[in-house]
Amino acid sequence: MIVEVVGGADERPEVRVVDTDDLTSLHLALGEVTDEEADEALRAGGLGRVEGDTGHLDTAALRAAAEPADAPGDWGQRWDAMVEHARGRGWVSEDGATLQVHVESAAGA
């Protein structure tokens, strides 16, 4: 699953959740936006925030945005498995409210 923040010089950054059926990985991909623009877009969308090269995504909001209306019967189980994997790696906040994810920038930085 990928959370994208895309936009351009004359566009307001937009947040999209894509590849929602691939629950084997999760990262935040930034298009041609600054870290500040990405942070603002994530906060405005209620999905999280960016701190340096780390994204912090709201677990419940991400699930609500990602779960397809016609999700296969095992989607919820695969979601739970992804979150548990992240928890085992220390990527879930103590209260379970946020997932820590890697940020990939279009600038390569």
Structure report:
- With 109 residues, the chain is an alpha/beta fold.
- It has one domain (2-105).
- The chain has three helices and six strands, in the order βββαββααβ.
- The protein has helices at residues 35-44, 59-66, 75-88; strands at 2-6, 14-18, 27-30, 48-51, 54-58, 98-105.
- The chain has a six-stranded mixed β-sheet with strand order 2-1-3-6-5-4.
- It is globular.
List the helices and strands and how they pair.
Elements: E1 2-6, E2 14-18, E3 27-30, H1 35-44, E4 48-51, E5 54-58, H2 59-66, H3 75-88, E6 98-105
Summed up:
The protein is of the alpha/beta class. It has helices at residues 35-44, 59-66, 75-88, and strands at 2-6, 14-18, 27-30, 48-51, 54-58, 98-105. It has one domain (2-105).
Query: What are the segments in which pLDDT stays under 50 over at least 5 consecutive residues?
Result: none
> What shape does the CA trace take?
globular
Structural class: alpha/beta
What is the end-to-end distance?
21 Å
Number of β-strand runs = 6
Number of helices: 3
The H/E string reads: EEEHEEHHE
Rg calculated over all Cα atoms = 14 Å
Strand order of the largest sheet: 2-1-3-6-5-4
Name the average pLDDT: 91
Helical residue percent? 25-40%
Report the major sheet. 6 strands, mixed
Question: What share of the residues does DSSP label as strand, in percent?
Answer: 25-35%
Number of separate structural domains: 1
